[in-house]
Amino acid sequence: MTVVRWAPSPTGRIHLGNARPALLNWFFARRTGGRYILRMDDTDLARSTREFADGIEVDLAWLGVTPDLLVRQSERTALYDAARDKLIASGRLYPAYETEDELDRKRARARLLGKPPIYDRAALGLTDEQKAAYEAEGRKPHWRFKLDGRPVHFNDLIKGPQTVNTASMSDPVLIRADGSYLYTLPSVVDDIDLEVTHVIRGEDHVSNTGTQIEIIEALGGAVPTFAHHNLLTDAAGQGFSKRLGSQSISDFRNEGYEPLAVAVMATLTGTSLPIEPYKNLDAIAEKLDFSMISHGAARFDPVELDSLNARLLHAMPYEEAFPRLSSMGLEGEAIWNLLRENLVRFQDIAEWSKLVTGPIEPVIAEEDREFLALAKAMLPAEPWDETTWSTWTNALKGATGRKGKALFLPLRMALTGRHDGPELKSLLVLLGRKACLDRLP
């Protein structure tokens, strides 16, 4: 069975850039009949909160994603401690005592000499006496993983064959001086323990993959298959970021966007699949293949989101809209079918429904008053159907010689108070003769 995981840090509200891997993992799990794990990377106790974690679950559910398993790294420390001890025992994890200032000076010196600013592994040469002296000074070590320093090869399901040469990298710090774990070790340990088969994430993690493969192998775990997708950017080409306050998924929800519209934009932008309405997430999962994901940046267009959101509403059947209409005190299939073509967001129907229920403020130009008075006098008797509009306007055309905009616009402005709106032949039937008489001067 395929097992995937999405691993957000609950340090803020998730945005479109976060939703992209969350959904791509979901699509892969649905398509392969696999298992989807939501893993909260909450080891940063200073910034992670339960409120943000709960918010992530709410946002995922709104998008249509239901994890098969939820785990929290803050509850799995014993696993990481065991992995730490194993790596120390095998000589792959070693203590280093340099301060951040000392490391900065080393990097600056390397640059001046034209060398890459990678860690020189000085800590590997420390004697027990030197370590004890540092400890006596009050220094606490951070712990580095000793890389093999070799080309690490892997076949990326999106980018194809990849090589990361760990010889050009610093031995990564896995444990801070205060004893807390950085992202890398807990992530690897969880992937091994949870038997993750596929890691689907942003291409900004490609260089991390070589390091992570070495750690997995050092712990005796099975190396998963990797797929690194292109990153979603905003309209200006800037990456989405919690730090920069990028619009969150909860913002889109509060602004009235359809979750499926947001999901489509988050995932199909930057692919060869069209940005168009889909029935549900499973319909996307059936069509989207990793080969369809571009290797270039995926730029989000808010105008395209509005257009897609409108198209989803225009195609929405009354049965689907009914619960939401009912909660707004609006019922009736005829009203929905008449007004949905004018909606960009669902809540717009509250304003559009006033065309039927009132009140509206008729707009009447002085030069049209005589024409509208005649129109009122010639308003057909009921019962009405969708032929009533043409019967009425044809009679007015014959009586006044008006046609086109000069004929239709004064009637629309008097009956709706707007230049735009639904077809008047359908609106007229819902209004009824009395409402039309009341709106005509």
UniProtKB/TrEMBL annotation:
PROSITE patterns: AA_TRNA_LIGASE_I
Glutamyl/glutaminyl-tRNA synthetase class Ib catalytic domain span: 3-301
Transmembrane segments: none
SUPFAM superfamilies, per the entry: An anticodon-binding domain of class I aminoacyl-tRNA synthetases (SSF48163), Nucleotidylyl transferase (SSF52374)
A biological process term (GO) from this entry: glutamyl-tRNA aminoacylation
Positions of ATP binding: 242
One GO MF term: ATP binding
Keyword Nucleotide-binding: yes
Location within or outside the cell: Cytoplasm
Domain Aminoacyl-tRNA synthetase class I anticodon-binding: from-to ranges: 334-440
Cellular-component GO terms for this entry: cytoplasm
Major enzyme class: ligase
Motif ('HIGH' region): 8-18
NCBIfam families: gltX_bact
PANTHER family: GLUTAMATE--TRNA LIGASE, GLUTAMATE--TRNA LIGASE, MITOCHONDRIAL-RELATED
Record-stated family: Belongs to the class-I aminoacyl-tRNA synthetase family. Glutamate--tRNA ligase type 1 subfamily.
Subunit structure: Monomer.
Descriptive protein name: Glutamate--tRNA ligase
Source organism per UniProt: Devosia soli
